[in-house]
Design brief:
Elements lengths: L1 H25 L24 E6 L20 E2 L2 E4 L8 E9 L3 E10 L17 E7 L13 E7 L8 E5 L2 E2 L5 E7 L2 E9 L13 E11 L5 E6 L15 E7 H9 L1
Parallel strand pairs: 1-4, 1-14
Antiparallel strand pairs: 2-4, 3-13, 4-5, 5-11, 6-7, 6-12, 7-8, 8-9, 10-11, 12-13, 12-14
């Protein structure tokens, strides 16, 4: 009987050792939970504006001179939807865009915050590869993906930190140097741009108050002398605005003179 007990004990001990060995060999590794940035990391992004405004006036037009005072007090939209390049960080890249119009021109203003503002040496059709801005605009509000005749993409390229009238520009990736007037002013933390785009280049005859329009806004950001590292939109969360007009957001033309009169009351 004692021999059987000892035998059973020996078998039990061996089984425990074997089981222990098996558990050691096949044990699963502890996997850390997926990293989630703290909520405050997104706090500065704010809420996306539902519409962008085009301020129309038949009597007041901004002067494209790099002074920018004609844009003060107007509502703009913030370009903070990261398409790629990490999560939104206003210290790296941030942007405020405003739009105006008269009877002949569409005017664009951009105030870009950039921790490493660069001079862009690429020709406009390829300048998405370095620091630059893009503005998408159309007057056909029906659902469509492929560009219609009134859908256009305007790219404005800052080229010099010392010469505010050194820039390049394209419309639908066709160089329009000399056809669009712009001014660029750099600072240590970014740059500002204002430009006047003739309606004749955008197949637009005229805009009128309360008219609905479509559009989007884009920042191309490159750092450390390299090519684009961040792509940021106002509306679309994908890199599709240049081929899909349905990804743009809604805008409305407002009467600038009426808005100014209301502010004075």
């Amino acid at each position: 009987m004692k021999k059987q007990i000892f035998l059973c004990a020996g078998l039990l001990t061996g089984a425990m050792v074997l089981l222990s060995s098996c558990l050691t060999i096949h044990a699963k590794k502890i996997v850390e939970a997926p990293y989630l940035p703290p909520e405050e990391a997104y706090a500065d992004a704010g809420e996306q504006e539902k519409n962008f405004k085009v301020y129309y006036s038949g009597s007041k037009s901004p002067v494209i001179d790099g002074e920018f005072n004609e844009w003060e007090g107007l509502d703009g939209i913030h370009v903070r939807r990261m398409v790629y390049g990490g999560m939104f960080n206003p210290e790296n890249t941030d942007g405020l865009f405003k739009v105006r119009a008269d009877d002949s021109f569409l005017y664009i203003f951009a105030d870009i915050n950039d921790d490493q503002p660069q001079e862009n040496k690429f020709p406009a059709p390829q300048a998405w590869r370095d620091d630059s801005i893009e503005f998408f605009f159309g007057t056909d509000t029906s659902y469509h993906t492929f560009y219609k005749s009134t859908d256009h993409r305007v790219r404005i390229v800052p080229q010099s930190k010392s010469n505010k009238v050194a820039y390049d520009v394209s419309v639908n990736d066709v160089s329009m140097s000399g056809s669009i007037k712009a001014a660029v002013v750099y600072s240590e933390h970014g740059y500002k741009i204002e430009a006047a785009v003739p309606f004749s280049l955008m197949s637009i005859k005229k805009l009128k108050p309360k008219q609905k329009v479509r559009g989007d806004f884009q920042i191309n950001d490159a750092d450390e002398g390299k090519e684009r590292a961040r792509l940021i939109h106002w509306n679309s969360a994908r890199d599709n605005t240049y081929v899909d007009a349905s990804s743009w957001g809604d805008g409305v033309v407002v009467d600038l003179d009426a808005e100014l009169e209301a502010d004075d009351e």
